[in-house]
Amino acid sequence: MFKSIVLPVALLGAVTTASADEGQWQPHQLTQLKSELKRVGITMPAEKLADLSKHPMSAIVSTGGCSASFVSPDGLIVTNHHCGYAAIQRNSTPEHNYIANGYLAKDRASELPGGPTLQVYVTEKVENVTDRVLKGLAPTMPGRERHEEVQARIKALIAECETDKAYRCSVPAFHRGLEYYRIRQMMIRDVRLVYAPSDKIGNYGGDIDNYEFPRHTGDFSFLRAYVGKDGRPADPSPDNVPFKSKDFLVVSAEGLKNGDPVLLAGYPGRTSRYKLPSEIRFARDADFPLRVAGMQADLAVIAAATMGNPAYDVRYANVVKGINNVLKKTQGLMDGFARKDIAAIKDVQDAEFRAWLAKNPSAAPKTLMADLDAVIAADMALSEEEYAWSVATHSDLLASARTLYRLALEQQKPDTKREAGYQERDLSFIKARLTRLEQSFVASVDEARYAAALQRYSKMAPRMHPQGLDALVPATSTVPALYKATELGDTAKRLAWIGKDADAFRKSDDAFIKMAVRMHDVGMNLENRRKEVSGNLERIVPQYMAAVIAWKKSQGKPVYPDANSTLRVTFGTVAPYVARDGVTKGPFTTVEGIVEKHTGKDPFIAPKELLDAIKEKRYGVFKDPVLGTVPVNFLSSADTTGGNSGSAVMNKRGELIGLNFDSTYESITKDWYFDSAITRAIHVDIRYMLWVMKEVDHADNLLKEMTIKYPKK
User: Does position 337 have pLDDT exceeding 50, yes or no?
Assistant: First the structure.
């Protein structure tokens, strides 16, 4: 008889021989992977890698969407160019376009504010709280009631952890709800832009080269964390001082060669390795095609609405970049599903699992698979309505109005009873998002995007339309009038709504406030239905995962949780791959490839200073002895995904030798299925970064600040 859905922590952490270099491991699991680390060639002790208080893990940080690392004792942080892009864009104007021209602060006083939405998170403590989240939940509890009870327990755990306001805590689920860990992170709120090369280096090849290899992109930038004079996180202030980072990564310019081991640490976003075949087919055949069409249409509208206006281009640069990145990845997933039938592969695995389960009935309840199929079907159906809702409300001003009205309603409740995202701890983030809009919003562009979105919504299948929404959605012809009848485009007036009571919203004549009030009940109905589905998923899927883990362990296969934006470690080797018959790619590209790609037309415009340095072969100590030139990008077999952007790529001794920034196009489906033959991550070589800093941008102050190990002569 099935007795428990929670496996002992020791069982979850224990693994036997891993498959290839697959696995995004929780740091504490590394002590169980000593043989694998040795196989790859990592010489750092596993116990040291598992300790968050010791180097190198104590130097690995998150920026809330990307990964990064400290590279000096004075809070200097290195990450990707595209991870610092919002800060670059925020400080750019048509007259001072740091996107196109780059930016270098020659002294601390010249460092620029990163903006209200940029924070740095330093993970300090991770503790298993599964028992406190799940203990005593009745198996017959309705889905919504169960979900809300779990969320109440999580909020209590967070409140208990956040008594010191210098910290931000979270309680994410692992193994799709089988385990929960409480994570405490120091949150640094004053983060400044120090250095970013021109996007002609940092984004060389643009969207054409995105997810492609060969690649020649210098995707790096530098930030600095600042704190109050007492050493604690503080709001941005001229009086703040650089954060004294406990540990930082030593930079190694000694280089790598094919087959060398690499260690990668960061905050991967989301993977779906344990999805069922039905979920893959839904994504492949229904969800992804719809989203791709929507993103393509939205980009076309933005392009038309910003055409010929440099100021508008700057404002929407980060928006467009973000949409393009998601678009290319989603298209890559669709192409990957077409190239290799992952659903069919999962069918075989699913059949094997069900056969094993039939022979091991004590591993799960008798009705598990039938219950699982039913709740997943409900999840997919509801997700279609949720997507339609997102299209019907695709306006920055409407989104702001909805957030503000919801905040007013939630503030009527005690803080512990408010919905997550609207508690007192969330106010600064809400204000930051509402303020950030002024750098990425133009009324006429938003108007065009909303009108086009409403047209797309009207053409969606009726089953996708949330009940009651059609009567509330404005006609496309009335959209211009809405934008004339609102003051939410003004930042000060937008922020002034924070703290007003719900009655003030109901009495407002502002067009978008009125729309938010009218649409609220439909949105809440969707949200409550999501809670019901989520609660059922949270009850049934962990039972499935417990059985899957037992099945995989019986085969000696690795047991690691899907990525969920928490600190993970992966490892592998520098390695090429066969993209298709007769075509082998990698593992290195060089600066000569930049010259070969240079056309003088966007996105293949290389700066003259860089071309001159290549022509004159001013390679110095950064010249690779085998390649005879400076390497730009390289491939490894490390297991990465979105969120790993900016992750430190380290050598066997834990020294920084590059930054992760992308995956190959053939690898995009690794979020769903890891294929060791073709799965490759793309990294920028530290030697190229240092060479650009020295020969092109003359960032000598930063080169002196970092601890760099140069090759022996």
Answer: yes
